[in-house]
């Protein structure tokens, strides 16, 4: 049994040595494309002499990384392309509309010469829905209105003369008079005697009330165009130059000698290229066959040894 185990280990070692060599002769697996790789939205081709100009156009948002734009050489329809340049261009969509706004200021006068300096010629605005722009003053829209009123009062007086009165008696004088639309009341009398008569100078007083403007409100309209950015993107263009790929010469009568023209060659004799291809295939089989033979030998040998072991065990049981 020890010998059997040793043989099995030897066979496994041979298989392990053969597998890396076999893997080395196989083509490498193609790496899967990167999930972050970007794809063009448009491809434009143009001919320049014996070269082809190919432009791959990408529309990127703020979430995209321009470093993921493929820039490696590639082959396409018989041409080999190499990167020349990558360009970038802003691409922004926006919406514009006409907008007006009322501007209000307070003034203590209605004199336009003093009001105009309080009204700027233009104003920058941002609307509640995100539009921005510069508005211009519409001078025809300026309005000045009283902001409020207050009242005041004062004492007014008037005098009247009454001559040739028979006695210095105030009852001869009127108690009230009307002056400039106001009613005044007798408040004082000065008497002067002239012979048998008296002259009276009467003073009348009253209160005059008036109202006045406490301030003014100035309103004006500003109008203009406002703009809102709807989306912002960048256009990247990867420019490639393509040259024709030189095709390998086909085996015809002009580029390759016929098998019958090769000195010493017999019909059906493998050429050097055929030998190389067959040699490559043979090398792979030389790597595979020893491993397969080793495994098969281990299996057969194991069966033989197990059979002998069972027979020997049965003989011992029989001879007891």
Any overview of this molecule?
- This protein has 320 residues and is an alpha+beta fold.
- The chain folds into 2 domains: 73 residues; 193 residues, no CATH class.
- The protein is 23% helix and 48% strand.
- The protein contains 3 helices and 9 strands, in the order αββββαβββββα.
- Strands 1, 2, 3, 4, 5, 6, 7, 8 and 9 form a 9-stranded antiparallel beta sheet that branches.
- α1 runs antiparallel to α3.
- The longest helix has 48 residues.
- The protein is rod-shaped, with a radius of gyration of 59 Å.
Quick tags:
320 residues; 3 helices; alpha+beta; rod-shaped
Give a quick rundown of the structure:
The chain is α+β, with helices and mostly antiparallel strands and 320 residues long. The protein has helices at 2-24, 112-115, 272-319; strands at residues 42-48, 51-60, 74-76, 79-107, 122-126, 132-165, 176-179, 182-194, 197-244.
Structural class: alpha+beta
> How many strands, what sense, and barrel or not for the largest sheet?
9 strands, antiparallel
Strand-and-helix sequence, N→C?
HEEEEHEEEEEH
How confident is the prediction overall: mean pLDDT? 78
- What is Rg? 59 Å
So how many helices? 3
Terminal Cα span: 23 Å
Mind sketching the topology for me?
Blueprint: H1 2-24, E1 42-48, E2 51-60, E3 74-76, E4 79-107, H2 112-115, E5 122-126, E6 132-165, E7 176-179, E8 182-194, E9 197-244, H3 272-319
Antiparallel strand pairs: 1-2, 2-9, 3-4, 4-9, 5-6, 6-9, 7-8, 8-9
């Amino acid at each position: 049994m020890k010998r059997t185990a040793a043989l099995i280990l030897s066979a496994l070692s041979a298989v392990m040595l053969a597998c890396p060599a076999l893997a080395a002769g196989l083509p490498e697996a193609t790496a899967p494309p990167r999930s972050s790789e970007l794809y063009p939205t448009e491809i434009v081709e143009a001919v320049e002499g014996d070269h082809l100009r190919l432009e791959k156009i990408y529309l990127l948002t703020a979430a995209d990384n321009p470093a993921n734009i493929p820039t490696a050489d590639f082959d396409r329809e018989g041409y080999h392309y190499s990167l020349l340049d990558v360009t970038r261009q802003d691409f922004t969509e926006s919406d514009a509309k006409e907008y007006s706004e009322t501007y209000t200021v307070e003034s203590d006068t209605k004199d336009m010469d003093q009001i105009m300096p309080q009204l700027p010629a233009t104003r920058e605005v941002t609307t509640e829905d995100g539009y921005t722009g510069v508005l211009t003053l519409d001078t025809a829209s300026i309005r000045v209105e009283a902001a409020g009123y207050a009242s005041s009062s004062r004492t007014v007086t008037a005098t009247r003369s009454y001559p040739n009165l028979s006695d210095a008696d105030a009852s001869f004088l009127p108690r009230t008079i009307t002056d400039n639309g106001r009613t005044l009341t007798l408040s004082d009398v000065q008497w002067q005697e002239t012979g048998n008569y008296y002259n009276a100078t009467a003073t009348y007083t009253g209160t005059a009330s008036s109202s006045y403007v406490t301030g003014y409100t100035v309103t004006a309209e500003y109008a203009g165009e406002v703009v809102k950015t709807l989306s912002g993107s960048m256009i990247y263009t990867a420019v490639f130059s393509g040259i024709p790929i030189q095709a390998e010469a086909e085996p015809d009568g002009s580029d390759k000698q016929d098998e019958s023209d090769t000195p010493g060659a017999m019909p059906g004799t493998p050429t050097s290229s055929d030998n190389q291809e067959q040699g490559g295939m043979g090398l792979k089989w030389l790597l595979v066959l020893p491993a397969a033979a080793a495994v098969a030998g281990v299996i057969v040998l194991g069966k033989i040894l197990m059979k002998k072991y069972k027979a020997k065990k049965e003989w011992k049981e029989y001879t007891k």
